[in-house]
């Protein structure tokens, strides 16, 4: 009968069972491995050095102390932590540890330290990447190499080392070789591994990765038209709106400065998609990306809806997701324009005031081209809420307020050639298309009645071909 | 910095740039068929109608093509047809 024990000094239960191990060794062959100090336990004259954790990894130890009974290389049984009866049964020694308490839980094995499973799996060849390795010498700065190789959007990227990629992939249950789709513009097949590498570059944490995958899948839906959005002369890029519990779980910002800088999840999830399109798809500015000006949101544009008020129907639920679902919604967004409405006190006044601002989307005399997202700030939302208005009331009032006599916006009116065909002068014209023309979401901090308008891509006028897409976040 | 090699994984498609020889322009347009491709933007055809009229006035042969939507890449069959039927292409890109 042989035994192997795995211990660590930094574990009170291991210290407690040290005399027991000495007692066992007097009766049977026992190899003791220590994860943090080969001089421990003194009672057994020290242990085999397992600070590199090779033996602990091979034996798949999760708790210390672990006592394993072997027949040659074959494991017969094991006990984890200290349980006197269990250890006595395992060893056949009826008086083993008689002076100790009946039981005491062990501690986590060092093989489970944060990042350690991935580190050990790489070291022992259990994770292999298919992407080309790029070896640097001692004089190379990894961040500069990434710039030189064209992997960056202009800001520094996190070097995609094997360990970082392995940790990123640990954020999902999906397989690294799973194909997500063809990334435009070059329509290159993209695996989860490539997505993980680009998520590392972008600075994502592993727990963001399922959201990144949902974003990529939404962007690859044909009706989202990612190719056209990339290649457009217009300003727009993908805007990601996150709903549901995942937003809180990964610490996204839906409060003050939600559309601005300063939150890692907001900043890096949107960036991961853009880097993937650049690096895997080959979409680069002044090449396939033909934007005349672009907008700063093309670095990254991602935020969460504020779902603190259960009275408000979140965007994803309004679009058909079950309550409590985590989703991403992708919009083709130009950038942010202000809707500063400080004087409105009633919901009707506020709706008219917001509608005036919304008419500026794309061009004040153009209707049903660009869509828009209205990001309703808390001070504006309070006006609606205090009047008992919910999502349906707000959307309905805005729709009414966004209807204008055609004669005000026909070509030539106001001395401006842009505008509707003059034959529509007698019509009442809606600013936005009925299908998804205006998305209303809640976000922001308190303090002023200033909501945000995210104008949409002018190609949204092809509403049958270019659609806003929502995708559920998986695991 | 340690002596361990520092390894990063390539985030790109790992495609070497494929430099292709440009097709030499035909020596004489009189024997060529000229593709006029509209990408379906609003005034694309207006522009191409004018180009077509001027080319035809010179006795040249044109064939008209149109992408279904400018928001998406041209279908492979359309591109293949241009490649097979024409030696020169003019594309009406922007508005």
Q: Can you offer a commentary on this structure?
A:
The complex is a heterodimer of chains A (475) and B (95). Chain A has helices spanning 12-25, 54-58, 84-91, 116-123, 142-148, 162-169, 192-202, 209-219, 226-231, 245-249, 264-279, 315-318, 347-358, 378-386, 391-401; strands at residues 2-7, 29-34, 48-49, 63-64, 66-71, 74-80, 82-83, 103-104, 107-108, 133-136, 179-183, 188-191, 237-243, 302-304, 327-340, 372-376, 403-405, 428-430, 438-442, 450-456, 469-472. Chain A has 475 residues and is α+β, with helices and mostly antiparallel strands. In chain A, strands 13, 14, 15, 16, 19, 20 and 21 form a 7-stranded mixed β-sheet that branches. Chain A starts with a strand and ends with a strand. Chain B is 25% helix and 22% strand. Chain B has helices at residues 44-57, 76-85; strands spanning 6-9, 33-38, 61-66, 88-92. In chain B, strand 2 (33-38), helix 1 (44-57) and strand 3 form a beta-alpha-beta unit. Chain B starts with 5 loop residues before the first strand and ends with a strand.
């Amino acid at each position: 009968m042989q035994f192997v024990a795995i211990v660590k000094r930094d574990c009170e239960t291991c210290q407690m069972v040290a005399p027991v191990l000495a007692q066992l060794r007097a009766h049977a062959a026992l190899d003791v491995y220590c994860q943090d100090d080969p001089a421990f336990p003194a009672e057994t004259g020290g242990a085999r050095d397992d600070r590199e954790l090779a033996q602990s990894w091979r034996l798949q130890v999760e708790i210390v102390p672990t006592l394993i009974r072997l027949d040659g290389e074959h494991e017969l049984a094991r006990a984890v932590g200290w349980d006197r009866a269990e250890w006595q049964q395992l060893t056949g020694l009826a008086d083993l540890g008689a002076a100790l308490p009946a039981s005491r839980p062990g501690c986590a094995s060092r093989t489970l330290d944060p990042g350690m499973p991935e580190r050990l799996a790489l070291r022992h060849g259990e994770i292999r990447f298919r992407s080309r390795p790029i070896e640097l010498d001692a004089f190379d700065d990894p961040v500069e190499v990434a710039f030189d190789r064209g992997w960056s959007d202009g800001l520094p990227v996190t070097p995609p080392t094997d360990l970082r990629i392995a940790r990123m992939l640990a954020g999902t249950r999906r397989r690294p070789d799973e194909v997500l789709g063809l990334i435009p513009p070059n329509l290159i097949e993209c695996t989860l591994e490539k997505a993980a590498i680009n998520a590392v570059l972008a600075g994502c944490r592993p727990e963001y990765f399922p959201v990144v995958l949902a974003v990529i899948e939404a962007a690859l839906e044909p009706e989202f038209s990612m190719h056209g959005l990339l290649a457009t002369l217009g300003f727009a890029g993908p805007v990601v709106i996150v709903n549901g519990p995942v937003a809180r779980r990964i610490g996204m910002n839906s409060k003050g400065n939600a559309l601005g800088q300063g939150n890692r999840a907001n900043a890096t999830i949107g960036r991961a998609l853009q880097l993937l399109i650049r690096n895997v798809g080959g979409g680069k500015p002044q090449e396939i990306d033909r934007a005349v000006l672009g907008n700063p949101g093309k670095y990254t544009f991602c935020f969460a809806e504020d779902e603190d008020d259960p009275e408000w129907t979140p965007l994803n639920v309004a679009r058909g997701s079950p309550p409590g679902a985590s989703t991403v919604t992708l919009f083709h967004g130009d950038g942010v324009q202000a809707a500063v409405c400080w004087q409105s006190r009633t919901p009707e006044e506020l709706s008219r005031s917001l509608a005036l601002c919304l008419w500026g989307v794309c061009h004040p005399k153009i209707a049903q081209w660009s869509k828009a997202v209205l990001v309703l700030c808390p001070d504006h939302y309070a006006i609606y809420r205090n009047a008992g208005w919910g999502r349906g009331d707000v959307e309905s009032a805005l729709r009414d307020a966004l209807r204008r006599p055609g004669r005000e916006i026909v070509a030539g009116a106001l001395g401006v050639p842009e505008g509707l065909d003059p034959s529509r002068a007698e019509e009442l014209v809606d600013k936005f298309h009925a299908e998804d023309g205006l998305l209303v979401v809640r976000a922001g901090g308190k303090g002023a009645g200033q909501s945000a308008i995210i104008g949409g891509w002018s190609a949204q006028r092809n509403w049958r071909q270019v659609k806003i897409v929502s995708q559920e976040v998986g695991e | 910095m340690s002596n361990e090699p520092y390894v990063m994984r390539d985030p790109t498609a790992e495609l070497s740039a494929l430099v292709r020889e440009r097709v030499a322009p035909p020596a004489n347009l009189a024997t060529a068929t000229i593709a006029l491709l509209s990408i379906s933007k609003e005034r694309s055809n207006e522009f191409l109608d004018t180009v077509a009229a001027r080319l035809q006035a010179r006795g040249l042969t044109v064939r008209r093509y149109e992408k279904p939507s400018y928001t998406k890449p041209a279908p492979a069959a359309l591109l293949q047809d241009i490649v097979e039927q024409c030696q020169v292409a003019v594309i009406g890109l922007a508005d």
